[in-house]
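Hey everyone, long-time lurker, first post.

I ran two proteins through the pipeline my lab uses and got sequence/structure pairs for each. Pasting them in order. The first:
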Amino acid sequence: MPTDTMKGADIEAQKLCRSYRMGQSEIRAVNYVSFLIQSGEFVALLGTSGSGKSSLLNLIAGLDTPSAGSVSVDGRDLARMSREQLARYRRSTVGMVFQAFNLVAAMTVLENVELPMRFAEVPRDQRLNRARTALERVGLGHRLNHRPSELSGGEQQRASLARALVNSPQLLLADEPTGNLDSRTGSEIMELIHTINGEGTTVLMVTHERPLAEQYASRFIFLRDGKLVSDPSEVPA
């Protein structure tokens, strides 16, 4: 996992929509939004629960497909990618950090961080070296052989961050990365993400905590009922 400056990814959404059917009703989780995020930016996506933040993040991650419109990363329209191309995109371009950590309970911390490289068919000796380096970087070099249940919440999120970064992604997507952490531990995680952004990685972070966003992000996108809101006062703090 290199630590020198790298180029982040651009993200462009054009009239992007994701709707769902619930009985006779149509719910638009993402309601024709358009925006551009430049390479290397740290952007916070703010809104209350149910505003469409996580749905939008899933579209950018290639985990879901639009009902209409498009989302492109470095000029590549994700909806036009094949299943294999999307899998490669998720392995090599995107790293994701979740509120719930999503570590595999039966694996050690080292094995969890190795996992994305297994999918990318990285040779085993390289996997081990890169996983150790990633874990040392987030302060878990002494926890390599522990299982997630033996870690604190902050340590689990550090392991999740190491796993997200081990393939040197151009784009880091963070969905409420401090949501399950106390304020001190959350600040430590945010400092790590801020450092990663300073090295050139584009960061898009979902949060409902505006003070946190104001401390670290360089720009904000506000969502309400799946729509972009130009006036941040319309989004509760």
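...and the second, right after it:
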Amino acid sequence: MSANTLTLKVVSPQGVLLETEAVSVQFPGEDGSFGILPRHAAMTSLTESGLLRARTAQGEQIEYVIHDGFAQVRNNVVTVLTRSAEKPDEIDLERARAAVERARGRMLETQAEIDLVRAQMALRRALMRERLARRR
């Protein structure tokens, strides 16, 4: 690792999905989006469903949709622990659209407050997956 890069690790219950050197990393945090560059101060944050982006030293753009978890920045290493992560080419657009419609339907039917929160979270995940799948 050079002084101008950092290590990005994306880990899910399935294992290490990505470990690479990057010049920048962006991820959705509980308090907004975070942009991380080499030699960033140590920090920990909850993550929300959204788009994780990284740019390698060779200029390659890496993207994953991540779903809830947390991120830690320490000693020039960004570790993102997430419930699940998908690359754009792994997302089926029709299934993503169907999930958006199901989530919207659940929000209309929901009586209990906890069910409404879960439906809102499902809708946010589905919309992010659909948006990324459309960009391929």
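Reply from user beta_strand_b:
Welcome! Quick read of the second one: Helices lie at 93-109, 113-135. The chain has two domains: 6-86, 89-135.
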